[in-house]
Amino acid sequence: MTSNLSTTHSAGGVRVARSKSELRASLAEARAEGRSIGFVPTMGYLHEGHVSLLRAARAECDVVVMSVFVNPAQFGPGEDLDRYPRDEERDMALAAEAGVDFVYAPPVEDVYPQGFSTHVEVEGLTEVLCGDPTRRGPEHFRGVTTVVAKLFNIVGPDVAYFGQKDAQQAAVIRRMVRDLDFPLRVETLPTVREEDGLAMSSRNAYLAPEDRARAVALSRALGAAERLAGEESLEAGLEAARRELSAAGIEPEYLEARDAEELQPVAELNGRPVLVALAAQVGGARLIDNVLIRP
Ligand code: AMP
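^ thats the input. predicted complex w/ adenosine monophosphate below
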């Protein structure tokens, strides 16, 4: 879709803002009237996972804002920034269907003006799992927290919605909101899956058919981990998960059990929610998935 970069226009009932000043102006009236604002940040290429967040925002808030921004700051060198899938026209149609009021879809310069030099860093939580320096590294999460902090300042939401699919990201955002006193509530909603269990992800578009078939092993592995953790032990659960992955020829980048909020390793179920998280390269896609084992 080609769009006028300086004006808000309607796309099936959704108003699209290309600049922060324009979005702020659009939201000023709602804010002045005390209407609640729900916000769903995305990188676009929407699927049912995103739509579940939009629907929750629609059900709970007076005004629903979605952002679509493929954030360069959270991609490392050699990652998939350039080939990240995009389809703005379809995104706008799905947003309209879900009842979104405003979409903020800015060009990179609106978010990162020349001379941009300020960052938000959450320590500790961002240095493990995907943030391990041998993997995407803490810089990935620094990119996420910086852009999300900016988006919170631009949108000024009462509630912001995130997916449990990106469990570490959600934990990092919750910590940032608490530590920096952002005046909003973070809602973390369950992972939406394909019929066979594969967690929905924009990156699933990278999977060749044979890899798509193998990728179901991730959710199967996590299902086995959850079952065995309950029946035997967390270690037996992780062992069962490793076997499922191995049977599909998948070598996980990591498969770990951690405290769901603090993200420190846990060896056994301990009365607190435990996150079993994994990442694996499957063909052309680096996939992540997790299961939350509640006490
Ligand atoms: P993304 O566009 O991948 O940055 O994701 C935008 C938001 O949608 C994040 O809060 C994600 O955690 C969430 N999300 C992505 N995939 C899913 C899914 N399968 N189920 C639920 N939420 C998801």
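Residues 42-43, 49-50, 52-53, 162-163, 165-166, 191-192, 199-202 surround adenosine monophosphate (CB under 6 Å).
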